[in-house]
Amino acid sequence: MPTLDRLANYGLRYTRFHTTALSAPTRMALLTGYNHHSNNMGVITEAATTFPGYTGVRPQTITPMAEVLRQNGYNTAQFGKCHEVPPWELSNNGPQDRWPTRSGFEKFYGFLGGETNEWAPLIYDGVTLVETPDDPNYHFTTDMTNQAIDWVEAQQALQPDKPFFIYYAPGATHAPHHVAPEWIEKYKGKFDQGWDKLREETLERQKKLGIVPRNTQLAPKPADIKDWETLSADEKKLFTRQMEVYAGFAEQTDYEIGRLVAAIEDLGELDNTIIIFIAGDNGASAEGQMNGMYQEMTYFSGVRETVPDMLKHYDEWGSPSTYPHFSAGWAVALDAPFSYTKQVASDFGGTRNGMVIHWPDGIKAKGEIRTQFGHVINIAPTIYEITGIPAPGMVNGIEQDPIEGKSLAYTFNDAGAPEKHTVQYFEMFGNRGVYQDGWYARTIHRLPWGLPLASLQEDTWELYNTQEDFSLANDLAAQHPDKLKTMQDQFMAEAEKYHVLPIDDRVVERTDAVLAGRPVLLGDRTTVSYFEGMKGMGVDIFIDLKNMAYTITADVEVKANGNGVIVCQGGRFGGFSLYMKNGKPAFTYNYLGMESTDVMASQPLKPGKYQIVYDFNYDGGGPAKGGVGTITVDGNKVSEKRIERIQAGIFSVDDLADVGVDDGTWVADYGTSSKFNGKIDKVTIEQKK
User: Fold this and answer.
1) DSSP percent split of the chain into helix, strand, coil, nearest 5
2) What is the pLDDT of residues 602-634, one digit of tens each?
3) Which residues contact 417 (CB under 8 A, 6 or more apart)?
4) Angstrom distances, CA of residue 224 to CA of 227, 283, 329, 342
5) CB 234: neighbour CB atoms within 10 A?
6) Which of 269, 340, 607, 659 could be bridged to 347 by S-S, CB 3.0 to 4.6 A?
C-alpha cells in the first residue's frame, strides 16, 4: 500500500486509534464528533429499534461536520459509501434530511447501503439514481475516484479561494471482495503459510516498525478458529485464494487513493491539505463465517456453502460472477496481535484501526508515531480546531448538544503530550468495554459467527492494563477485583450518559422491522401498485413477498417482439423477475444464483394491451418452501410450473426492486436489454396471507 506508506512517512502514524466496531455507527461518529449511540446509531440502520440510542435517526441537536464546514465557507463532497440513511427513508419520497446532500455535502456520488457490487453498483449522484457506465473494465472504486478528481479540479478552477472538504469512503475492503485478476495474481502464493503464521509474521513486522511495543504478545486466537495445519488440502486451497483476492482488493484501493492524492498534488494543494487516512473495516470482518462465501446472500437465507461447492468458483473468485467474503480465520489474522474482529467492540481487534495524518504545512514532524489514545469521535473536533471553526452551539435555530470528541491537534507536534481522551466506552451487540487512563475492562458477549456466550447478566468481565499489555493478552481481573468493579461502574455511568441502555443483544429479531418496532414505509398494507420508472426500491420500500403466496398483476401495452422487465427484485445472486422475452410472458425465480426456474408462455403475444398476471401459490409450512407459479394473460392460463424452493431471506442489499428495467445485475437473461420496450400502465402486487 504505497500511498498509505508515503503519507505515513511524511506524516504521523497513530497506533492507538479506535472505531466503534461496525461501519455505519463508526461513520456517523466520524462525521459528527459524537458517540454512535448519541447519534441514535447503536447498530446499523437495518437493525434499528425504538430505544433511544438505537432509532437510526440522527437527532437535530447533532449537526454533521460537513454542514458546519459548508456554512463556514467550505465546498463539500462525499464519494463512495454512505450507510447512514434509515432504510425506510431510501426513496424519492424521502424524507431526505439524512441523505448526504441534505447533510452538508454539496456533492455526493456513491451508494447508500452497507455494501455494493463493485462491478454493478447502485449509484446515486446527489439524490438521483444513475446508470452504471457501460464499460467492460468498470470498477466502482475507479469510478468514484474519477468523480472525486473531477470534482476537486473543478472546485479549484472555479473557486480556488474557497477551501474544500472531501469525505472519500470506498467500499473496500468490505465484502464483496471484487477486483480485477491483475491485482489478484500479484498475491499468488503469498498466503500459503496460512493464518496462524500470518499472525506471527504480522506481529514481528509491527514490532520492527515500532507501532507496537517490543514486549507485545499475540493474544489468544478464538477457540472456534481452526489451526491452519489441521485443515484439508481443499480448505487451504480455497482459503488462500480468498485472501489473495482480498489483498488485491486492498492494494487496488490504495492505488486509487493515490490517484486522488496525486491530483491534489498536481493542483499545488497537497502540503496545505490535511489528509486523514483511516485504514480498515473497523476490525477485519468475520461475517464470512468459518468457510467464507462465494456469494454472501447465502448467509441471509441460512444456506451454508461448502468448500467443495466454493472450489468450483476458484478461478473466478472476485469476478462479476461472484459476491465473495473470506473465512473468519483471515479476519482474526488481519487483526493481529488482538484476538477478535469486527463486531466485537470489546476487543481492540474490532476497534483499533491504523490511522495516518498527513499535513506538511501544519505538522513539523515527519514519519513519527503517536501513541495517545484516540477515537473516531476525535476527527470532527480535530478538523474544527485546525480550521478555526468552533463546534457549533446553535445550527439553524436548533441548540446543539455539547461536542463529545476531543481534538487530536495537541499531538501533532508533541509526541509526548499527555493524552486528553482518557475515558471511552465501547458497545455493540452486547459486547461492551470501557477504557480509563490506560486500564481497560471488557466482556466478550457475542462473536460474529455464533450465539451469545452467556446471558447479559452472566457475562464474564476481564481487566487489562493496556500500558503494559498492548494486545489484551493478560487478564488481571482476579488480581484486581476492586479495580474491575470500579471500571464496571464506569461503563454503566458512560452507558447511561450516552444512551447505550438498555443493552440489546438481539440480532435476528432486530432485522425484522415489525419485531424491532421501527417504521415500515408500507405499514400494514398488503396491496401496492407500482408504476414504470420506479426503481432502486429497497426491502423497506418494496412490498415483502418472502415465504408467502402472492399475485402480481401487470397492465401493459406490448409491442411486436415484446421484451424486457415488467417488475423484478434482486439480481444475479438471487431474485425474481416478471418479464417479456421475444414476445412471450415469462417469470424467473433465481434461487441464490445456484438454480433458476423459468415459467414461460409457449406463444408470443401480438401487439396490444394485456393484463398479465403471475400467481404464486406457496406450499406453506415454514420458510424456504416451494410452490406453484402460474402466468395468465387476460384470464387465460399460458404457463404453469413448480418452484421447488425459495429464499428465506433478502435477495440483496444493493440489487433492489425495479419496474420496467433490471438495474444492477440481472435476475434472468433478457437478451440485449432489460428495459421494457412497451408501456407499463401499472403493476399491482398483492400478498396472499
Assistant:
1) 25, 25, 50
2) 999 999 999 999 999 999 999 999 999 999 999
3) 372, 410, 411
4) 9, 18, 9, 16
5) 14
6) 340
Q: How far apart are CA 280 and CA 284, in angstroms?
A: 7
Residue among 399, 257, 278, 256 at smallest CA distance from 30: 278
Q: Which cell numbers hold the place of 36?
A: 454512535
Closest CA to 578 of 595, 565, 596, 563: 565
* Chain centroid to CA 352: 18
Using pLDDT thresholds of 50, 70 and 90, give the confidence band for residue 676.
very high
Encode burial over 543-565: b for 16+ CB neighbours within 10 A, e otherwise: bbbebbbbbbbbbbebbeebbbb
Residue 250 DSSP class:
H
Residue 29 CA, chain-centre distance (Å), reads 15
- pLDDT of 139 higher than 90: yes
Contact 554, 631 (CB under 8 A): no
pLDDT at 402: 97
36/42 Cα distance (integer angstroms): 6
Residue at 672: amino acid letter: T
Cα 278 from Cα 426, distance rounded (Å): 19
CB atoms within 10 A of CB 390: 12
- Return the axis-axis angle of helices 23-32 and 379-387, rounded to nearest 10°: 20
Please, are residues 338 and 199 in contact by the beta-carbon 8 Å criterion? no
Does the CA dihedral 534-539-540-542 come out positive or negative? Answer: positive
148 contacts 90 by C-beta, under 8 angstroms: no
Q: Which amino acid is at 301?
A: S
Q: Find, among 441, 410, 249, the residue nearest to 345 by Cα.
A: 441
pLDDT computed for residue 300 by the predictor: 87
Dig out the grid coordinates for 269 from the structure. 494543494
Predicted confidence at residue 11, as pLDDT, reads 98
When pLDDT is cut at 50, 70 and 90, the band that residue 134 belongs to is: confident
* Contact indicator for 439, 483 with CB cutoff of 8 Å: yes
- The position carrying cell 501533532 is 412
- Name the band, by pLDDT with cuts 50, 70 and 90, for residue 689: confident
Contact 448, 342 (CB under 8 A): yes
Which pLDDT score, from 0 to 100, does residue 117 have? 97
Strand pairing class (164-169; 75-81): parallel
* 636/597 Cα distance (integer angstroms): 21
Axis-axis angle for helices 194-209, 233-266 (nearest 10): 30
Q: Are 22 and 282 in contact (CB under 8 A)?
A: yes
Can you list the positions of beta strands (E) in 310-460? Answer: 354-358, 368-370, 374-375, 394-395, 398-399, 423-428, 431-436, 439-443
Q: Is 572 exposed, middle or buried (0-12, 13-18, 19+ CB in 10 A)?
A: buried
State the DSSP code for 319. Answer: S
pLDDT tens sequence across 50-66: 999 999 999 999 999 99
**For 325, which DSSP code?**
B
Q: What's the number of CA atoms in the CB half-sphere (13 Å) around residue 580? A: 32
562, 542 in Cβ contact below 8 A?
A: no
**Cis before 337? omega within 30:** yes
Q: How many CB atoms lie within 10 A of CB 254?
A: 18
- Angle (nearest 5°) at CA 289 between 287 and 293: 90
